[in-house]
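Incident review: delayed structure delivery

Summary: a single-chain prediction request sat in the queue longer than the usual turnaround. Root cause was a stuck worker, restarted by the on-call engineer. No data loss occurred. The affected request and its eventual output are reproduced below so the record is complete for anyone auditing the incident later.

Affected input:
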Amino acid sequence: MRIAVLAHLRQPIAEPFAGGMESHCWHLVRGLAARGHEVVLFASGDSDAAFAIDPVLAKHYERAFPWDVYRGSAVLTGYLDAAYGAACDRIARGAFDVVHNNSLHRFPLEPRRTAAVPTVTSLHVPPYDALHWFVRASAAPGHRLTVTSARQLDAWWPEGAPAEASVLHNGIDPDRWPFVPMGNGEAVWCGRITPNKGAHHAIDAARRAGVPLTLFGAIEDADYWAAEVEPRLGPAIRYGGHLRGAALAAEVGRASVFVFTPCWDEPFGLVAIEAMACGLPVAAFDMGAAAEVVGEGGVVVPPGDVAALARAIGEAAAIPRAVPHARVRRCFTHDRWLDGCESLYRQVATTEREPAFA
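Output delivered after worker restart:
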């Protein structure tokens, strides 16, 4: 198939990944190409040069319009509207069999566009006002919608999801996150360093548990880092940087337990299954899809309860490493996820297709 993958534009689709959405999109393009599809990535031009890229913007917009300053502003909205409008028009003229929309923008959801090019939209966030009603009005035979967890399906459609919406769990390539049979007794945390990821809770819980902790990830919120994270660092609590995939997998695999501290309605939790693939059981706050993802591979506790999380670190560390690893192999592999994507593509591609507009 000839497939357009439409990305969001805040960060480049390249390693080291700023977060789960960038990782999801990068692995989607790479995986589809490996399966013989012709894939064009519509993303910022500074994304991975190994891909065939049709640049929606020359550079990711965080460089010119930092999200924490410009979010919701007319300046950023107009900038993105112009870029996505032009990109959607190029996709409509590009003889694509299907577009996989990961953009979190309203234009690819428009019925005139999904009628012209069969579309699969992946929703990586909880419902929010800027997108919510466009999503709910967009379901159609030629447009399928996926969410990453049952929790998010209920959040988007509390009254019951339409037939065109379904759960498609994220997946990883376990070979990129090698299983390590024994840990070093320490804990690890990964993610964007921002308040809704809760790194400071992980630090406080690890200290209570008497377990060394290393943090990895991009410092997205400098004020949060300076106020809540950096002052908590010390001999047993360290920041390991923002690493590329292979280096990060090696660091994660050495640890004995993964600490997962979402402070928002986490749609999935890709970092958790990456750690689980390495054999790390998880101590987690029960927010969003955490319990759905972790399952028997860890221990979940009430959100924000640092004392309970400290106890969970010890309890999770006692779970045999084969248990979380097996859960990933059974439920969350890259091949399983790509099989689901291809199935959806076939479904939408068989619908009647209107001529592309000029």
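Verification: The chain has a mean pLDDT of 95.
Action items: add queue-age alerting; document worker restart procedure.
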